[in-house]
Amino acid sequence: MRLQSVSLRGRRFAIQLGTIMQEFGNVIPWLDGVRGLEWATNGTYVHDEILRRLRLETGDLTPYHFVTRDRSREFHGGILAFARSPERFIDPRNIAATEELDAIGAGYISCLQVLPDHQGHGTGSTLMRRALAVILEERGYVWGVISNQGLLPWYRSLGATVKSPIENRDNLWIVTWTKHNATP
Ligand SMILES: CC(C)(COP(=O)(O)OP(=O)(O)OC[C@H]1O[C@@H](n2cnc3c(N)ncnc32)[C@H](O)[C@@H]1OP(=O)(O)O)[C@@H](O)C(=O)NCCC(=O)NCCS
After folding, report:
1. Where in the sequence is the domain holding 157, given as residue range(s)?
2. Across residues 23-52, what is the average pLDDT?
3. Distance CA 29, CA 93 (A)
4. 104, 135, 118: which is closest to 159 by C-alpha?
5. Predicted confidence band at 184 (pLDDT cuts at 50, 70, 90)?
6. Looking at the DSSP assignment, which residues form a beta bridge with residue 163?
7. Which of 11, 20, 141, 162 meets the CB 3.0–4.6 Å disulfide criterion with 106?
8. Does residue 91 fall inside a structural domain?
9. Would the CB of 110 count as within 6 Å of ligand 1?
10. Which long-range contacts (CB under 8 A, 24 or more apart) does 42-46 make?
11. Is position 108 within any domain?
12. Is the CB of 122 under 6 A from ligand 1?
């Protein structure tokens, strides 16, 4: 399997956005703002429009695909990397943590998914390790938000530090990585 940062030419990013909407459309609030874009077929338009709608024009968004090495380049999963985050919190402790992360220019990752047929065989762990290595090399510090508390032990096994208190008003958990704590 190979992790690729995806060219915005063609339909590949739009296909990924389609699978993201299926998986997280009712889970991640900021995806409400980009609804409908999964039907656009121009990847550059999708990219620019996501940033415009989320008011992140000064930043960047890189889609990563985890694909087979054969000619089909079959899509098994992916993740999105943003220069800045579209997340909004209500718990003051989560708000304070995000302000700190924004201030140090930490990169933000979201929408990690492995397609259902390929889950449970270590794909997600490999994808995350490779994505963290690439993104940390670029930005030095990365964070994300977990909506499923049951996944926290897995994220910890990948070197994540959990910044949010377990009980918090958002019922979301901020996790961070630095070059020093990501597990290779
Ligand atoms: C989470 C996900 C990316 C893991 O991918 P995968 O290829 O199945 O991952 P792996 O086979 O490497 O296993 C990952 C670990 O997570 C655990 N796990 C997976 N889904 C879980 C869930 N819903 N709740 C608790 N643990 C879970 C697995 O049991 C495994 O634990 P282990 O290493 O102790 O055996 C994949 O299940 C997925 O895409 N899920 C739907 C989208 C999602 O929840 N994304 C994460 C958003 S925060």
Report:
1. 2-178
2. 94
3. 19
4. 135
5. low
6. none
7. 141
8. yes
9. no
10. 42/14, 43/6, 43/7, 43/8, 43/9, 43/10, 43/11, 43/12, 43/13, 43/14, 44/8, 44/9, 46/8, 46/13, 46/14, 46/17
11. yes
12. yes
Residue range 81-118, pLDDT digits in tens: 999 999 999 999 999 999 999 999 999 999 999 999 99
Quote the mean pLDDT of the chain: 94
Q: What amino acid occupies position 144?
A: G
Provide the CATH number for the domain around residue 139. Answer: 3.40.630.30
Choose which residue among 23, 28, 109, 113 to substitute to test ligand 1 binding: the one with the highest number of ligand atoms within 8 A of its C-beta.
113
Residues 94 and 174: beta-carbon distance below 8 Å: yes
- pTM of the full structure: 0.95
Q: Which residue has the higher pLDDT, 59 or 23?
A: 23
Backbone angles phi and psi of 89, in degrees to 5: -115, 165
| Number of structural domains found in the chain | 1
Ligand 1 neighbourhood includes 116 CB (under 6 angstroms): no
pLDDT digits (tens, 9 = 90+) for 38-72: 999 999 999 999 999 999 988 899 999 999 999 99
Q: Is the CB of 121 under 6 A from ligand 1?
A: yes
